[in-house]
Description:
Two copies of one chain form a homodimer. An eight-stranded mixed sheet of chain A has the order 5-9-10-15-14-13-11-12. Helix content of chain A is 32%, strand content 20%. With 488 residues, chain A is α+β, with helices and mostly antiparallel strands. In chain A, helix 13 (415-427) links the parallel strand 16 (403-409) and strand 17 (432-434). At the A-B interface, strand 4, helix 1, strand 5, strand 6 and strand 7 of A face strand 4, helix 1, strand 5, strand 6 and strand 7 of B. Chains A, B: It is an enzyme of class 6 (ligase).
Amino acid sequence: xxxxxxxxxxxxxxxxxxxxxxxxxxxxxxxxxxxxxxxxxxxxxxxxxxxxxxxxxxxxxxxxxxxxxxxxxxxxxxxxxxxxxxxxxxxxxxxxxxxxxxxxxxxxxxxxxxxxxxxxxxxxxxxxxxxxxxxxxxxxxxxxxxxxxxxxxxxxxxxxxxxxxxxxxxxxxxxxxxxxxxxxxxxxxxxxxxxxxxxxxxxxxxxxxxxxxxxxxxxxxxxxxxxxxxxxxxxxxxxxxxxxxxxxxxxxxxxxxxxxxxxxxxxxxxxxxxxxxxxxxxxxxxxxxxxxxxxxxxxxxxxxxxxxxxxxxxxxxxxxxxxxxxxxxxxxxxxxxxxxxxxxxxxxxxxxxxxxxxxxxxxxxxxxxxxxxxxxxxxxxxxxxxxxxxxxxxxxxxxxxxxxxxxxxxxxxxxxxxxxxxxxxxxxxxxxxxxxxxxxxxxxxxxxxxxxxxxxxxxxxxxxxxxxxxxxxxxxxxxxxxxxxxxx
Amino acid sequence: xxxxxxxxxxxxxxxxxxxxxxxxxxxxxxxxxxxxxxxxxxxxxxxxxxxxxxxxxxxxxxxxxxxxxxxxxxxxxxxxxxxxxxxxxxxxxxxxxxxxxxxxxxxxxxxxxxxxxxxxxxxxxxxxxxxxxxxxxxxxxxxxxxxxxxxxxxxxxxxxxxxxxxxxxxxxxxxxxxxxxxxxxxxxxxxxxxxxxxxxxxxxxxxxxxxxxxxxxxxxxxxxxxxxxxxxxxxxxxxxxxxxxxxxxxxxxxxxxxxxxxxxxxxxxxxxxxxxxxxxxxxxxxxxxxxxxxxxxxxxxxxxxxxxxxxxxxxxxxxxxxxxxxxxxxxxxxxxxxxxxxxxxxxxxxxxxxxxxxxxxxxxxxxxxxxxxxxxxxxxxxxxxxxxxxxxxxxxxxxxxxxxxxxxxxxxxxxxxxxxxxxxxxxxxxxxxxxxxxxxxxxxxxxxxxxxxxxxxxxxxxxxxxxxxxxxxxxxxxxxxxxxxxxx
Lengths: 488, 488
């Protein structure tokens, strides 16, 4: 391991991620004529294998106070070094390509929003995990926990200047402040697709179709994952039947959504606290176990809107070609207060992972912000569970850096010539990794292998005088000399 | 304008961005049986021109408290509706394509970092504008004002597991909390390219080459913009000459960087406060006005490192092919404390705009975080000034939504068939905007024009019974029927 200057301790493990201490001189703002000891920080010397560039840097102590710096990103957050960024780009490109295939336009919002945008009184988990702050102007702000409220805000703001329906998508970072640590991060990226202005179930059907298209593109099949589908109108109809006031709807949904996380008795108790009768509670919970539309029709006693919507959706699923991917499951409610109709979630059939994605209809969200109600639906698809699933299925791609050329001067005087060669190739649209220092050939070949260069372009004195460069095709070993202008 | 439900006022202007009030019922957590008035929110009805989808939504009042929601993004931040997102993507794609052309790998870091990462004692403007908070765990955190400190953190963390040199780039959002409002935003995106591990000026020369490549790609020429180049070693050598302690270096640079913003007397006063003699101050300020390397050589009395680096850079600029873009200008210092060598900034030759981009060498940043010093340089290039410049030069592209097909059922019963057609086309990689509702043909043509569809695919009853669809090529008006499978 490269030596690291530490005041209190010395590291021996390469894996250990240290909290490092700065051993620099503290300087007050008053004039002082300190005699700074002329210490030399010597960085990793050039090693025989040429693995690292060396440099001996003359000291020029900056005016920093002695302080601890953690070299890790803040708890629950991620850096994206190149290998992780390649995977992120691969995943996001699939999100974006699918969205464009469906004719959706990309949008984005600030990652920092007004806190009030996310405050709903329905007892959602998302609210308790709000990453909120007070800014210097004493405004309550929050790192967005989801994208839909910002979308609703933008739709209201745009007003009549946009023509409905809107088909929009976004891939944005969302934050939640979780106290517990069970491998869940405090930030993730979420792919959202939303349709604003279509009251019909064709909208939900198309949204699910787009997720299925994504799955197919990354190699996931209907035997790996499925969608559980229900409608909140089922609960709505039951609440009406039992005379439960409709303003309790969101809260009841949030309570019922916890059914797999807390004991049934606890659920009943919470429902009781809202004022729902024991009889109604029993009935609600009974209906949640229904797994077929016919049984649901029996339970609800007649064909209401819920049944009609769901039947329509299943019929459309057949036409879109993804029948085998979806199933009715009354237990699906989803944890956001604003859903009003069809709700769905993607799940892995092995039952090992959390929901892969989820969405639904939210026809009344806009009015909660003071806008007109406009029918709307959408989904959120995180970047965490899908990667776990792809990993498990062996479907994560091997992504590596790739450049077409590595260009290198054969002696120091030819650095400028190598720059000219690199520029000529780049002007032709060719990617070039230019070797910026004088290095032994062994080092250059190692580097070429590391960046997966297709060919090595060498600039030597004699050839260059004739306007020639040497080219070595690295896959075949083929070698030739060519005029710079003829190099394609 | 579409009617918006507002409690206190009524809007008449379409441009006015309202603060809307929620007129929803407050619900406490205790059980209540409120009789909710059965009000109907009626959204924009379908108009004869078919411009907006209509829907009458049965009320289902959610449990929200009466609260103000501003439909604008927080002060100083931006939404990206589709038209702005297209421009952002166009710009970022140029950043990314140029970076890849130069063989750089993409990276990213958390937008929320530990505050200490950004705290330097040199009196930088960036520190006063830190967007900092205390999180729920009482940790001091900040929205990153720049990307370089995170990069340094990641390089230290990676330690020996990465091979030098690293050539990395990032396009990330940065934040600064500015109290004043003179059209500057509180967030912007910044393109960064950095080279870690190369002590030679070839690194700076390549970085400037990449920015020139970007400018050329978007149509900006050397008569539009240029680069002012200097080296902080000029100041370093002067400070040494006058016996000023080296630990004052960063602070002196930050003071001198303000030269165009505050009066010279103020600069002298601030320099005096650091303990620098009047004589030295005079000399420093005099050298800053030097505009040629020969004059600089005279001023410094002999050829030191500063002169050697700069001469080398200008020689390389010629070889890279961008001589006409750069000029020596001793007044360039840059406002970040950590630069140690070459510094440069891109400027518009008309002198109307702030710096377009800026960068330099920061060979000692890593040691301020406790790591080994590794030679490094890089630049930051914001997304604000460049857009102003492109706008002024008439170089902003006209970007519009584009889809290949708009698919529409000719009657409601054929919605499913239209879904089948859309899926077939999407499976072939064709982009499809599927009309999700039953709409008059006039509406469909309007929509097709708005999304710039290349062709309209109509699904009619008689044809569909024979497996045929009608296709209208919208540019030519050409019309034909074709089997779905034969539609390419």
